[in-house]
Amino acid sequence: MHLSISFPVAGAVRPIVGIGDLVVATALFAALMRIGYGVGESFAVPLGGMVLALGVGLLVGGAPALPFIAVVTGAYVLTRRPKRSPPPVAG
User: Fold this and answer.
1) E strand or H helix at 32, and its extent?
2) For residue 63, how many C-alpha atoms fall within 13 Å in the half-sphere facing its CB?
3) Residue 6's CB: how many other CB atoms inside 10 A?
């Protein structure tokens, strides 16, 4: 409860977004940017997974966000090509 964004739902305070969800979403944002996706889509795709998890969680009384973030991001990467080439890897 201390490392999450919580809201009252049905008379009880429930964690909505945890610190782990934010860390993973940030890592995905950085990774998508690095491999050539634009800023907007790199931000919107992981956020879309979190919003989907939020909707499902509010309907059923809670749902972990990481599977939703992973599925949405994975589906996006598999169906869309980056707009630009990724930078060369040093080494």
Assistant:
1) helix 19-34
2) 17
3) 14
- Whether the predicted model's global pTM rises above the 0.70 cut: yes
Q: CA dist 57 to 7, 11, 13, 18, 88, Å?
A: 12, 15, 13, 13, 40
Parse the chain into domains and list their residue ranges.
4-79
Query: What is the per-residue pLDDT across 38-81, written as a single tens digit (0 to 9) for each?
Result: 899 999 999 999 999 888 877 876 778 899 999 999 999 999 88
Which candidate, 69, 59, 55, 63, places its Cα nearest to that of 22? Answer: 69
- The set of long-range contacts for 13-16, using a CB threshold of 8 Å and a minimum separation of 24, is 14/62, 16/54, 16/57
Which of 63, 66, 69, 32 lies closest to 47, judged by CA?
69
Nearest to 3 by CA among 57, 16, 13: 16
Alpha carbon distance 36, 82 (integer Å): 5
Separation of alpha carbons 63 and 49, rounded Å: 12
